[in-house]
Design goal:
Distance between the termini of chain A: 75 Å
Radius of gyration of chain B: 26 Å
Order of helices and strands of chain A: HEEEEEEEEEEE
Helix content of chain B: 25-40%
Oligomer: heterodimer
CATH class of the largest domain in chain B: Alpha Beta
CATH topology of the largest domain in chain B: Collagenase (Catalytic Domain)
Largest sheet of chain A: 4 strands, antiparallel
Number of helices of chain B: 10
Distance between the termini of chain B: 65 Å
Number of strands of chain A: 11
Largest interface: A-B, 17 and 26 residues
Number of strands of chain B: 16
Strand content of chain A: 35-45%
Chain lengths: ~160, ~350
């Protein structure tokens, strides 16, 4: 029988399923590395879709340069990774200030001078970032999403 | 330098006018917090500047302690011998309006200054200190004033000396006298430990206590790895399932950490103001930069001063070349379960194994 109560509970279930679905497939930001015009500089950019903001834990990301080893540079000729020469920091628990707000519909970028952290010989390299950790809500940090940015192959002078 | 100062003073004098009094209108007074200090105590002095003239005076902030000490403001001597200033000197552009503070007639302003991070106080001695600032730029520019100051031969502000006794760190542990400070904040202890970046007495004392704890921890970790059985709970909690090659790697890491702490010339720097515990450059042994969270950490136990020194020492490529893969105890425990080969490369995993808090067998 199709009672009003049953109709209500069915539609609530349907609404719930839609909302769960949208959480799981919430449009993620897009991140990538770009070779800058000059020298050994890369630009990191993260772009956030409209309608939804995110938080990024800035540790171990390009926004933390150079206090953690967040970037691997591999020489494509020798297949050796370059030694990281920047700093490594011991920290406590992250505070709210360590999470960077990524506003809906906006892009944030930061420029990385590779020469500050690597002794670079001219050649072709693959640049790979550690996966980013994204949060929708700082009051619910148990819910987080890992985001892998595509690697970049680049000629460095 | 003074020529340059005069030139820039003239440049400003021609564009700015102010109602300022003469230099002799400002009195400086020093007050020590104590008469004598032990080697682990900070040496606090209160500097009071009073405008005794009947008109307002503007002083250049750089030569007060308004934003911390940014120039050599004091003359310090130990048993009659002048001690060098170890702090920063700044190259600056010509001062602007916002670089001056104004004292009304009769007004006083006081600053607390910690001296052991700024001057070489490694020697046990009777110290004498006076505020001693001479600069043509000290007072707000005013053409009439500059001429009058020059005519009167007034160059700055000088206080009466204050004196105190200080038990220096270099005589601790007998007659193996340490080298004098090599500049930049603190000198070298008898054990070859150096301090740079303005480490105060209490900071040096905190670091040495942390280092002693770190040595105890590394010796205990070595002992455990040499004698415990392969089902050690302490090992598996932080480094995961047993394998002989991983166990050997960890043993090797700790024997190198222990050797570095006991035998290598360690340098500790106190200039970092970030909210980290500490950081290092893995390619630059054996210098450790201590940051804000270090000073409030306990000496031993979880995330302690001793453990932080273990953590940082493990990062050096010539020691264990560890990385920061995960942070915190819960992260390190999860990593041990999910990926033991990563755990043995993680600095916090080494730290927690060494701290062994809570105690595991």
């Amino acid at each position: 029988m199709f009672t009003p109560l049953r109709f209500l509970s069915l539609s609530l279930l349907l609404l719930w399923m839609i909302s769960m679905n949208s959480l799981a497939h919430q449009a993620l930001p897009y991140c990538h590395l770009i070779k800058a015009e000059q020298g050994n500089t890369l630009t990191f950019e993260i772009s956030v879709p409209a309608n939804t903001h995110w938080y990024l834990l800035s540790w171990h990301t390009p926004f933390d340069a150079w206090f953690s080893n967040f970037l691997t540079l591999t020489d494509l000729n020798s297949h050796q990774s370059l030694q990281y020469q920047g700093a490594l920091a011991k920290r406590g628990e992250p505070t709210d200030e360590d999470y960077l707000l990524l506003p809906a519909g906006e892009s944030l970028s930061v420029s990385l001078d590779l020469a500050q952290a690597f002794a670079i010989r001219p050649g072709r390299y693959q640049a790979a970032l550690r996966p980013l950790r994204l949060y929708r809500d700082l009051n619910d940090k148990a819910q987080s999403t890992s985001l892998e940015c595509p690697t970049l192959e680049v000629n460095l002078p | 330098m003074s020529k340059l100062f005069k030139l820039s003073t003239l440049a400003i004098a021609s564009t700015l006018l102010s109602q300022s009094a003469l230099a002799e209108g400002i009195a400086a007074k020093l007050q020590m917090s104590q008469d004598s200090f032990s080697s682990d105590q900070d040496v606090m002095v209160t500097l009071t500047l009073t405008n005794e003239a009947n008109v307002p005076v503007k002083m250049l902030k750089w030569f007060t302690a308004a934003d911390g000490v940014e120039e050599s403001l004091f003359k310090v001597s130990a048993d009659g011998q002048e001690r060098p200033y170890l702090g920063a000197h700044y190259k600056r552009p010509a001062p602007s309006h916002k670089d001056y503070i104004k004292l009304k007639s009769g007004e006083s302003i006081s600053y607390q200054v910690e001296l052991s991070s700024l001057y070489d106080m490694s020697a046990t001695a009777n110290y004498e200190i006076s505020y001693d600032v001479s600069s043509m730029q000290l007072f707000a520019p005013n053409p009439g004033q500059a001429k009058k100051l020059a005519r009167l031969g007034v160059e700055g502000i000088h206080s009466a000396p204050a004196s105190f006794y200080l038990e220096g760190r270099e005589f601790k542990g007998g007659n193996n006298k340490g080298k004098p400070g090599t500049g930049d904040g603190g000198g070298t202890t008898p054990d070859g430990i150096s301090f740079t970046g303005r480490c105060s007495n209490s900071q040096q004392s905190d670091i040495l206590a942390g280092l002693a704890a770190a040595k105890t921890m590394s010796a205990d970790a070595n002992q455990h790895l040499a004698t415990a059985s392969s089902n050690s709970q302490r090992y598996s909690t932080w480094f995961g399932a047993y394998s002989s090659s991983r166990w050997n790697t960890v043993s090797n890491n700790f024997s190198k950490i222990d050797s570095a702490l006991n035998n290598e010339p360690l340098t500790f720097d106190c200039s970092c103001k970030k909210q980290y515990y500490a950081y290092v450059y893995p390619t630059q042994p054996y210098k450790i930069y201590m940051c804000n969270a270090f000073w409030s950490a306990p000496t031993s136990g979880t995330d302690s001063k001793g453990g932080t020194i273990i953590h940082e020492t493990s990062h050096f490529n010539v020691v264990a070349g560890t990385d920061d893969i995960v942070y915190g105890q819960s992260g390190a425990k999860s990593l041990a379960i999910s990926d033991p080969s990563q755990a043995i490369q993680n600095a916090d995993s080494h730290e927690y194994f060494a701290e062994n808090t809570p105690n595991l067998n």
